[in-house]
Amino acid sequence: MGSFVAPAIGALAMLGATFAVLPVEAQARNDFAHRLLEAHNTERGRAGLPRLSWSSRLAQDAHEWAEHLSSKGSLEHADTERRRNMGENLWMGSAGYFSAEEMIGGFLSERTKFRPGTFPQVSRTGNWADVAHYTQIIWPRTTEVGCAVAKGAINDFLVCRYNPPGNTFGEKVG
Question: Is the confidence at residue 164, as pLDDT, over 80?
């Protein structure tokens, strides 16, 4: 069994706090998930959009696909049925080298090519795929996200799922 971190129970009890003791691995996953969510919400705040909430269901679906990708060793979007018609962002990078913020930063770097408009006319390059990760993050109707990372032999694989999905033709973004 994994290690456990026991908080100072007496001090927390005096403050009326309730808590659960989590294995170190679970605490690390929870912190990583929080950082992924905050990276999304920081950008949404910058764009004047409501915050996303974390979906454990989406995170579980993302985890299953991330594990699939890590075993395969390459990126590939899940088909619409497999992802239950949710939006999806994928990222891959050298295992163990990237923080949650750097992973999401890969999506956010597309902001420089983005121009507000009606999808798909939202890229300064003329190719909507150049901003598709970014537009999914700032999609106005999206309300929840769930992400997961799986470690492959060489790379980490991040999968984020979004509900409702973005990048819908004919809808305004930005």
Answer: yes
